[in-house]
Amino acid sequence: MPRSKKTWFAVLGLLAWRPMSGYDIKKLVEIGLSHFWSESYGALYPTLAQLVSAGLVSRRSDRGRGKRPRHVFSITPRGRGELERWLRGPTEEPRVRNEVVLKLFLSPSRPWAESVRLLEEHRTRQLASHEDFAASEVVLRRALKEGVLPVELQSVLGDGPKANQPSGARSRQLLVLLLSLRQGVLAAQARLAWCDEALRAVRQEARATNPRLRGVAR
Amino acid sequence: MPRSKKTWFAVLGLLAWRPMSGYDIKKLVEIGLSHFWSESYGALYPTLAQLVSAGLVSRRSDRGRGKRPRHVFSITPRGRGELERWLRGPTEEPRVRNEVVLKLFLSPSRPWAESVRLLEEHRTRQLASHEDFAASEVVLRRALKEGVLPVELQSVLGDGPKANQPSGARSRQLLVLLLSLRQGVLAAQARLAWCDEALRAVRQEARATNPRLRGVAR
DNA sequence: TCAGACATGTAAGTCGTTACATGATTCA
DNA sequence: TGAATCATGTAACGACTTACATGTCTGA
User: Fold this and answer.
1) pTM to 2 decimals?
2) Percent of chain A with pLDDT over 90
């Protein structure tokens, strides 16, 4: 039984926000969705072609004067129908494969210092991504409150002033963007908290095992 | 460039805990590591065969009288060397693909009630897994404090009373098991907190948008 | 003028899952 | 005796990623 075709529906769903080229989709995912989604060109372009064949998406060649030629894809009514069915359908839990935890788990025969380094490096990465998220959150909350759309968000939400957004649609987009960001913030916080807890435990254990280190700070 | 061969090293690392059959490995991962790792038979058995070919693991046929015949795999010294190199090497961040967040993100054209249902279902699953983790944690902490190994953990850590565990090795296994569990607990808590936050926001928005529902509890 | 962004694709290969296939042993 | 669990594997497929290949336009 074919498994879920996530790229398929991710692309379809993004095209429901607004018509875009493959390149636009890639950028949108990288810039705005990277904390919960990823796509590669090698999956994107074939998927786009398949969606067109299936009649869920239409392709139009946009070759404006002095413009780079590009293909703009739009969702069709049938595409909206399929998207809706998928949105209403069952949602798969991602199967987890956390290499950091695995390494820690497999480390019992290694020196404690190695686990400490593993955790410290992981912590540094988490801290950086947490800071990124937090900064984006500040921008987004201001946008939501003041109703202005800063440049940073235009590439995510589309900049069209003439875009025929029904009233409230824009603020609804901002809300789901904020909620998805909050997910990233909370997850990063939890990972950070885990690093701290694990580091404390491992360092304590290291001191207890190797009395020469007793009293050494850090 | 071949990507990291996680199954390869996961299997190698588990065999460093103790010799096991493929079936044992599968059960161990399912029962004790499911909150941060997964393996399928279709990956496991071929990997085991490859590890043997590579000389990192040795296979012995165990056909005791009245016993089911089985293959017991043990890590070789070369295998330990490779494992060690991998443990010390760089650790990849998993690329995230969270279908729940994606669906929420793609929902702006759908009724709020649909997002509420999505989040509620997700919350229910997270609550259940959080409870499982918390229960396991209680068992583990007691084991760590009292130095006794309850039956539930014997399938994870191995039950050998004659196992030539160097002093402290068992408690170190318990510690990394606890830490890996804590990772699951904290992650589940964060997901739960996010669900609550998102549900609050979405419900509030739903009420604001549809005044007929104003004042309706839940 | 040339680096860097824009833009689109393909080919090969990796990684892993599901479904299939098979059979032994235990225990109610 | 027959269901559940132990036990081992393969085949086909699905879903991606990486690396390659190619070209255009903009602006410092």
Assistant:
1) 0.92
2) 73
Cβ contact B202–A194 (<8 Å) = no
Do the Cβ atoms of B75 and B16 come closer than 8 Å?
yes
Whether the CB of A5 is less than 7 Å away from nucleic strand D comes out as yes
Cβ-Cβ contacts under 8 Å, B194 against chain A: 182-183, 186-187
Give residue B215's pLDDT: 56
Is strand D within 7 Å of residue B1 (CB)? yes
B30 at interface of A, judged by CB pairs closer than 8 A: no
pLDDT at A198 over 70: yes
| Bridge partners for A62 per DSSP | A70
CB proximity under 8 Å: B 69-128 to A: 80, 83-84, 87-88, 91-110, 114, 118, 121-122, 125
Question: How many alpha carbons lie under 13 Å from residue A118 in its C-beta half-sphere?
Answer: 27
Query: CA B38 to CA B25: how far, in whole Å?
Result: 10
A117-152 pLDDT, tens per residue? 999 999 999 999 999 999 999 999 998 888 778 777
Taking all residues of chain A, what is their mean pLDDT, rounded to a whole number? Answer: 90
Nearest by CB to residue A100, choosing from B16, B91, B101, is B91
Report the residue from B33, B37, B109 with minimal CB separation from A16.
B109
pLDDT, tens only, A54-82: 999 999 998 877 788 899 999 999 999 99
